[in-house]
Amino acid sequence: MFANEDANVLVYGRDPSAALSRSGMIERASGGTLVIEAVENITARDRQRLVSLVDHRNFIALGADRPRSVDIRIIGTTTTRRADDEDGPARDRGLEDRLSGITVTLPGLVERRDDIPELFRMFVADFERRLERSAADLTEIEWQHLVSH
Predict the structure, then answer these.
(1) What is the rounded distance in angstroms from the CA atom of residue 70 to the CA atom of residue 57?
(2) In the chain, what is the greatest distance between 2 CA atoms, to the nearest angstrom?
(3) How many domains does the chain have?
(4) Is the pLDDT of residue 19 over 70?
């Protein structure tokens, strides 16, 4: 989401009075929720900007001369587990600390194999609907194979 400079323009928005009319994700999320994936991969500069957004609930759009207020809920996701003692000198935990009001840890499927049949059925039903086709039912041996792998 924050991989390059162009992404910053999309996130922070543009000022319509500066002849740039696209709103950014933060503006579009105002009154709702902004989900930021892979918080651990955000650059230091963007982390500082997001910390400021979380603290002050405002941002300055590209080309704007004053901050804009937003009413926004921010959810950050990560694929890494946070160790409380993991405080490397180059790692600024400010953003994670501010976003960690509620932490939901979801164990991998290997730890919750009972969920596999339900997830599988959900994906099959979605594909059946999209492809307008019916899938064959699995045999008991196929279900056991699916759950064990």
Answers:
(1) 6
(2) 65
(3) 2
(4) no
Phi, psi of 62 (to 5 degrees): -60, 125
Q: Are 59 and 52 in contact (CB under 8 A)?
A: yes
Helix H segments across the chain?
5-12, 25-29, 44-56, 94-99, 116-131, 140-148
Please tell me whether residues 123 and 89 are part of one structural domain.
no
- Per-residue pLDDT at 149 exceeds 80: yes
Which structural domain, as residue segments, surrounds residue 49?
Answer: 5-105
pLDDT at 59: 85
Q: Over the stretch 81-119, which tens digit does the pLDDT of each residue have?
A: 655 545 444 455 678 778 877 778 888 888 999 999 999
Residues 6+ apart with CB under 8 A from 128: 134, 135
Considering the domain architecture, whether residues 74 and 125 belong to the same structural domain is answered as no
Phi, psi of 101 (to 5 degrees): -60, -50
Other CB atoms within 10 Å distance of the CB of residue 85: 4
